Amino acid sequence: MNGEHIKKIKGVEEMLLDVGTLLMSNGASTGRVRTTVNRIAGALGYEVELLITSRSLMLTVTEENGSDYTSSVRRTPPHAVNFRIVSGISRMSWRVIEDNLSVEQINIEITRLTSLPHYPRLLVLSLVALSGASFCRLFGGGWLEMLVTFMATFVGLFIRQEAIKHRFNPYMAIVFASFAASLISGLSVKMGIGSTSDHALATSVLFLIPGVPLINSLTDLIDGNTLNGIVRGVNGFIIAFAIALGLMFAMQLYGI
Amino acid sequence: MQIEIFTILEKGIWFGFAALGFGVLFNVPQRTLLIIWLMGAAGGLTKLLLMALGTDIVISTFMGATLVGVLSVSAAHNKHAPPLVFSIPSVIPMVPGAFAYRMMLGLIKLSGATFTSEFYSQTLSETVSNGLKTLFILMALAVGVAVPMLVSRKETIKKIRQKQE
Questions:
Q1: A-B contacts at Cβ under 8 angstroms
Q2: Which range of residues forms the domain containing residue B124?
Q3: 10 Å Cβ neighbour count for A56?
Q4: Terminal Cα distance for chain B, rounded
Q5: Which of the 8 DSSP states describes residue A60?
C-alpha cells in the first residue's frame, strides 16, 4: 500500500463527497443521491457504500480489483433548492460513463456548476409574484385581488431573501415573510377592497409552501428511505407551521 | 357549456404561470421553463376537467399529478434534466391553499370559542373537513408525482447495466 495510491483513492472520495452533498442540499431525493454517486464511482472503477442522511454524508470507497479502501464523513450544508446544480450533476454523471471523464475534469465541472448564476433577483421576485397572482385567480379572485396578491408576494419574498442573507433561522425567515405578505393582503380585507378579498389573504402566503421537502419526503418514504422521508416530512411540517404562525399574527393584529 | 370550457381553459394559463414562478424560484435551467409552463397547465386542466365531469377533488388531483409525473419522465429524457426539475414546480399550483387557509382559520376560531356552544360543533366539523381535504389532496399530489419517477428509475438502472456489460 503506497502513499501515491492512497492519495488517488482519497481524491475520488473527496469528489464523490462533493457530488453527494451538493445533490442533497440542492433538493435531490435520497435515491437520486445514491444512484448518481454509484454511477460515477462505477464508471471510474470504484465501489462505494453510502450512508445518506439529511445533514451529513458518509461513504466508503473500495477499488474494484484491489483491497485498498478509505472512509470519510462530511457535513451537508443547509438545504437551499437549486435545480440547476441537480440537473447539471445528473447530466455530468452520464458524461462520466460516455466520455470517460477523469477526476480532474469532474472537479472542474463541479466548480463550474456551483458558480453558475441564479436568475436576476428582480426577475425572480416578479415571476414569483406573478405566480402568487395566478394562484389568486385560480381560487376565484378578481383583477384587483390579483394585484394585491402580486404586491404581497413580492414584498414577502423580498423579506425572506433579506432574512436569509442576514443569517436568521430559516424557519424565522418564513414567519417574517408570511407575516409581511399577510399584513399587505390583510389590509385589503380590512379596508374591504374587492368583492372576494379573503382570496388575496389566502393566496399571498402560498409562495412559501414547502413543495420540495414534502414531495421528496413521499418519494423517500415510498422508495424505502424511511428515516430520510420522516426527516423531510417533519421539516415540511415545521415550515407549514411557520407560515400559519405568520398568517395568524397578521390576522390577530387586524382582528379578521 | 361553451362558456364553462372557456373559463377552464383560461385557468390553464394561470396554472402555467403559477408553475413557472416556482420554477424560477427553484432556479431550474432555462431550457426547461417552457416545458414547466406547459406541464403546469396540462396537470391543472386535467384536474379541472375531471372535477367539471363530477369526479372527486382528491381523485382529480391524483390524476393531474400522475399526468405531470408521467410527462416529467419523458421530458427528462428529451431535455436532459432529472424528472423532479419538471414535476415539482408543475404540481405546486394544485396545492390546496384555500382548504389549508380555511382549516387554519377554523383552528384559530376554535381556540377562542366555548366548547359547549352550537358555534363550536359547527366550526369543528368544518375545520375537520377542510383539514382532511388538505391532507388527502397533498398526499394525492405527492404520490401521483412520485410513482412514475420510481417506476422509471428501474428502467434507467437496467440501461446502465446493459451499457456496462
A1: 158
A2: 2-164
A3: 13
A4: 58
A5: E
Domain extents in chain A: 3-114, 121-254
Please judge whether B147 and A28 are an interchain contact, meaning their C-beta atoms are less than 8 angstroms apart.
no
> How close does chain A come to B116, measured CA to CA in Å?
23
Question: How does pLDDT run across A87-124, given as a tens digit for each residue?
Answer: 999 999 989 988 888 999 999 999 999 999 899 999 99
Identify residue B55 by its one-letter amino acid code.
T
- Measured between CB atoms, which of A118, A202, A248 is closest to B98? A202
Q: Which residue in chain A is spatially nearest to B83 when comparing CA positions?
A: A87
Q: What is the ipTM of this complex?
A: 0.90
Give the one of A39, A127, A215 whose C-beta lies nearest to B21's C-beta: A127
What radius of gyration do chain A's Cα atoms show? 22
Please state, in angstroms and rounded to a whole number, the distance separating the CA atoms of residues A212 and B23: 11
Interface of B with A in 124-153 (CB under 8 A): 138-139, 141-143, 145-147, 149-150, 153
C-alpha cell at B13: 394559463
- Number of domains present in the structure of chain B: 1
Write out the E strands in A110-184.
Answer: none
Please, what is the end-to-end C-alpha distance for chain A in angstroms?
Answer: 73
- Residue A75 DSSP SS3: strand
**CA A198 vs CA A131, B14, B124: distances in Å:** 17, 19, 21
Put simply, the answer to whether B95 touches A83 (Cβ < 8 Å) is no
